[in-house]
Each structure stands twice: as structure tokens, then as C-alpha cells.
């Protein structure tokens, strides 16, 4: 859309050109293609472009799009420089997406680390059972050992629960 506006197209024609570009980029009927087809139909029946964009933002319910449309509509109504506003909005959205990707990468590493650390106690117990069966008999062969190991299992379950809550962070 920015490229079409840079060339000198009106907003209505820029939306039409954007739809043509989307048809080249995406195969089939994706959600964005359907939305732009619907917007073009609204343009043909002379609905104001600001209203079309606001309705689009309401239908999609994506924060970045709603912010972009709000800024865009305000700038258009007040006579601001649409091209620089679009350029700035695109830059901010791009920066936000980049930061989200970096955070997701860090969280993915911590989730993997959590899974590995969660499996280690079972690996240690399995190793001890194979290598030192007499030691494990002391831990699991009497009431005191079973009680202590049951308490350890509850502590492990609590730590696992809190670990799951920590690594399942919404961005």
C-alpha cells in the first residue's frame, strides 16, 4: 500500500493495487485476500475509506492493525503526511515483531532447558536402580525411605508445576 501511495495513487486505488500484489504473493483464498476483496467491494459502493479501514480493524481485532488504522484515519482527517505516517507505523510494527521473535527465541531455549531439567531426576533414579540396587532398596524398601521419597516427589511435582507456569509466558 505504501508503494502505491508513493507512486501517487489515491487511497482507494492503493487498496486495489495492494489486492493485486496479495494475489501474486498468496495462493488460494487467504484471510487477507478476502478482507481486501471485501474492502474493494465497499469502495465500489462509495463507502468512505476511513470507515472501511475502521471496520476492517474491528473485524480483525489485532492490536497493531487497530493502532495503524487509528493513526492513519486521524492523519487523513487532519491533513497529515500519510506517507511518513505509514512509513513510521510500518517501522514500529516491524520493530515490535522483531522484539517478539527475539523473546520467543529466548523463551524457547528456556522451555527446552526446563524439559531437560525435568527429566534428569528420573534419569538419575533409573541409573541408581541399575548401578546401585542395594542403595535404592534402602530408599524404597522401608517405610521411612518411602516417606522421604514421597516428600521429595511432592516437592518435585510442585517445582514442575511452578516451572510450567514460568515458561508458559504470553508475549
TrEMBL record:
Organism of origin: Claveliimonas bilis
Bilayer-crossing regions: 138-162
Designated name of the protein: Type II secretion system protein GspF domain-containing protein
Keyword Transmembrane helix: yes
Keywords from the UniProt entry: Membrane, Transmembrane, Transmembrane helix
Amino acid at each position: 500500500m505504501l508503494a502505491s501511495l508513493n507512486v501517487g495513487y489515491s487511497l482507494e486505488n492503493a487498496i486495489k493495487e495492494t489486492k493485486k500484489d496479495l494475489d501474486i504473493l498468496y495462493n488460494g483464498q487467504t484471510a487477507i485476500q478476502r478482507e481486501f476483496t471485501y474492502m474493494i467491494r465497499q469502495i465500489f459502493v462509495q463507502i468512505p475509506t476511513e470507515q472501511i479501514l475502521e471496520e476492517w480493524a474491528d473485524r480483525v481485532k489485532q492490536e497493531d492493525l487497530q493502532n495503524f488504522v487509528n493513526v492513519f484515519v486521524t492523519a487523513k482527517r487532519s491533513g497529515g503526511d500519510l506517507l511518513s505516517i505509514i512509513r513510521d507505523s510500518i517501522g514500529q510494527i516491524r520493530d515490535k515483531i522483531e522484539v517478539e521473535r527475539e523473546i520467543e527465541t529466548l523463551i524457547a531455549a528456556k522451555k527446552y532447558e526446563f524439559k531437560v531439567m525435568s527429566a534428569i531426576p528420573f534419569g538419575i533414579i533409573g541409573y541408581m536402580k541399575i548401578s546401585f540396587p542395594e542403595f535404592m532398596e534402602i530408599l524404597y524398601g522401608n517405610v521411612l525411605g518411602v516417606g522421604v521419597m514421597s516428600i521429595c516427589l511432592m516437592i518435585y511435582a510442585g517445582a514442575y508445576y511452578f516451572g510450567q507456569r514460568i515458561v508458559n509466558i504470553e508475549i
